[in-house]
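dumping this here so i dont lose it
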């Protein structure tokens, strides 16, 4: 039993063949798929997919950092209306900081992130965090909330060993590992091996992005998670079944079903 903790199967890349993608995920042994939102516009397709595959696909609520711009406060207040009594969301995500693509709205990104951290606290939901080239800023944003009992996932972790050690201080957070770990030039295997124990690892795909080898460059899908699992087994020098058991347990510690 595997869990894909991060997959965007509700985007248009999957419109034509989603049922086959889901079928292949089930055949690959995936028992649950957790889906991070992107922005206000993506919410209806996210919710439709999760309603159709209820009990298999689970939605999160959030505004992605690359979708943050000057009017973010308006967008956030509209998104927040979905967080009403009886909502289906299992996490606040994906949220965070991305200074790799664009730093124009760095301040706004930090403002949006801070507000969504507060949503996670007030609704007692885990946080699924996206961070690219902004690890010291990420730490600075999270630090004031250290005593708040926050939990979550540092999705697609790409930081240095130093970043990993610092973020491990947030003891109820897991590190999400995806296809990027299979790339030839990746230093992530070494970083993980020396800094992050398997008890802090969850598997993800980030579909349709970041296809693992040997599918790199093609559309990613949940069933390819087995390639990530294989690589993680190699890194931690463990049988595949053990990786599966531990990472699934880790994932289910974060996401409580609704
Ligand atoms: Zn994502």
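and the seq i came up w/
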């Amino acid at each position: 039993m595997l869990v894909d903790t991060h997959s965007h199967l509700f985007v248009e890349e999957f419109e034509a063949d989603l049922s086959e993608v889901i079928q292949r995920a089930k055949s690959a042994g995936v028992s649950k798929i957790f889906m991070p939102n992107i922005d206000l516009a993506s919410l209806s397709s996210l919710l439709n997919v999760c309603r159709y595959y209820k009990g298999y696909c689970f939605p999160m609520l959030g505004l992605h950092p690359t979708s943050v711009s000057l009017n973010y406060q308006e967008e956030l207040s509209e998104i927040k209306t979905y967080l009403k009594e009886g909502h289906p969301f299992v996490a606040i995500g994906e949220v965070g900081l991305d200074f790799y693509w664009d730093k124009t709205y760095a301040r706004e990104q930090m403002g949006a992130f801070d507000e969504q951290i507060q949503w996670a606290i007030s609704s007692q939901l885990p946080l699924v965090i996206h961070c690219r080239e902004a690890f010291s800023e990420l730490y600075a944003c999270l630090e004031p909330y250290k005593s708040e009992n926050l939990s979550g996932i540092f999705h697609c972790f790409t930081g240095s060993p130093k970043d990993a050690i610092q973020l491990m201080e947030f003891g109820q957070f897991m590190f999400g590992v995806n296809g990027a770990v299979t790339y030839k030039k990746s230093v992530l295997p070494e970083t993980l091996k020396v800094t992050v124990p398997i008890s802090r690892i969850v598997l993800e795909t980030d579909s349709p992005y970041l296809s693992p080898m040997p599918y790199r460059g093609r559309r990613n899908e949940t069933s390819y998670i087995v390639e990530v699992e294989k690589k993680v087994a190699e890194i931690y020098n463990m049988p595949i079944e053990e990786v599966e058991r531990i990472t699934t347990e880790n994932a289910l510690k974060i996401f409580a079903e609704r």
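The longest helix spans residues 106-123.
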